[in-house]
């Protein structure tokens, strides 16, 4: 079964108005990503890669153009619809982990489901399984300050999986880690990809891009160059682009 596109971007433009100056962060980006892909987005500072990640994550709105995620044009959604769809379809991993310090490991993993109005008691086993998946089954009651940086990033990865998202977005996920721990985190991403997860990582590092199935280089707000190294992992789900 051939994979379907879960992301399609058409002529996406993002302009920031800074007083009397217009900053064109994205200048008409066209991009399609199939389910089961592992994509690395690279580029120098100011190239537009972080803005593109924010667009993919439904964290910011385009000035013009269209973004289809899982077959729906998120460009037409109001703020409430966009927030709900983001919570259902996307998982996020950040360089700084973005964990809630007052919560335990299992509570941090559960957070996206809390915002969907669900109860931890009903999803405890699911969250525990994800903690075990990332090697933290014996740390369920620990808080972030009791964990190493690598362990905190593992919590963030488990949290990104809790809603079974269409897409996992990661922003410099190894940026705050030493080399050995960074490799361990990348090996975890490799495992997720091998199981059919769709990954999009923004990175400065070639060690991430070397593992990706597809590399996209941004420059001056457009896709400057891209290289596909191998086909996406085959998965069973299908999505219709509207």
How is this structure best summarized?
This protein is an alpha/beta fold. Helix content is 31%, strand content 28%.
Q: Briefly note the structural class of the backbone.
A: alpha/beta
Helix content: 25-40%
Assign the CATH class.
Alpha Beta
The topology string of helices and strands comes to EEEHEEHEHHHEHEHEE
Report the CATH superfamily: P-loop containing nucleotide triphosphate hydrolases
What is the overall silhouette? globular
Number of domains: 1
Number of helix segments? 7
Q: What's the rounded overall pLDDT mean?
A: 90
Radius of gyration: 18 Å
Predict the CATH topology: Rossmann fold
How would you portray this structure in words?
The protein is an alpha/beta fold. The chain has one domain (36-61, 77-228): Rossmann fold (3-Layer(aba) Sandwich). The chain has seven helices and ten strands. The strands form two sheets. Strands 6-7-8-3-9-10 form a six-stranded mixed β-sheet, sandwiched between helices. Strands 2-1-4-5 form a four-stranded antiparallel β-sheet, covered by helices on one side. A hairpin with a 2-residue loop joins strand 1 (5-18) and strand 2 (21-34). Helix 5 (149-161) runs parallel beside helix 6. It starts with a strand and ends in a 14-residue tail after the last strand.
